[in-house]
């Protein structure tokens, strides 16, 4: 909803841009809405301040004053701070009700086609398609970043290591995302070529850790890494933060990236991934790609940096 300064019975409302809610877009507040908001705000403030007959009489006298009539009418139409705060792109950092504002953010979700491959032949075909797309873009002098992420089966027992990388997801835009079930297929040679090519950008949050995990499990060194947390800090300035995908999505996209533990910590070695697992995996890779585009479009922060490259060092052979 994006309300401009529209007069309502002669009263000008403050703008409420980027207000995240379930109401129909561009639907103005009705008089009934305003009265409900006024009643809530009135009860809140009346309950907080001491009340006495003398103060009530004074308020009644003040309200009866002609000079205060217009001001009181305008005050009735002012939105509570809890609602006004939500018009800010980073509403969760302004409102004291952080859980509420985060809950009201729209959910980021990959809406394109999920290409699921679980056999060696299928993964090989997916890698071939990706290489052809990248080669075509290279001829057009266009560099495509690949949203990159991995999943594995966690261990909840002391002394038992987590499983190997079970799933690798690669996204190169809004239309297609490849989810590769490596625990059943292994890594074909053409996928290894793609991963080890330093000219093919792989972007993600904490991507160096993901690359190290791939090397430990498959002895393949993933190159061409671009860490989203590093780039966000360089563009945003200020004290460096260790950004994750979810926090970056809130900060830069004003969207919520859901990370339900039931899926995140689930069995990624299952014979066939569920629809929920496929959607989770594809959305993570898509969020990495999307955030890279958003960070790239931000202006440079006016701060000095000792590292100008912006690249994560390739994971060394161990």
UniProtKB/TrEMBL annotation:
SUPFAM superfamilies in the record: Ribonuclease H-like
Span of domain 3'-5' exonuclease: 121-300
Keywords, sorted A to Z: Exonuclease, Hydrolase, Magnesium, Metal-binding, Nuclease, Nucleus
Compositionally biased region (Basic residues): 71-80
InterPro entries, sorted: 3'-5'_exonuclease_dom, 3-5_Exonuclease_domain, RNaseH-like_sf, RNaseH_sf
GO biological process, one term: nucleobase-containing compound metabolic process
One GO location term (cellular component): nucleus
Gene3D superfamilies registered for this protein in UniProt: Ribonuclease H-like superfamily/Ribonuclease H
Main localization, broad class: nucleus
Localization per record: Nucleus
Positions of region (Disordered): 51-82
Name of the protein described by the UniProt record: 3'-5' exonuclease
Native organism taxonomy: Eukaryota, Viridiplantae, Streptophyta, Embryophyta, Tracheophyta
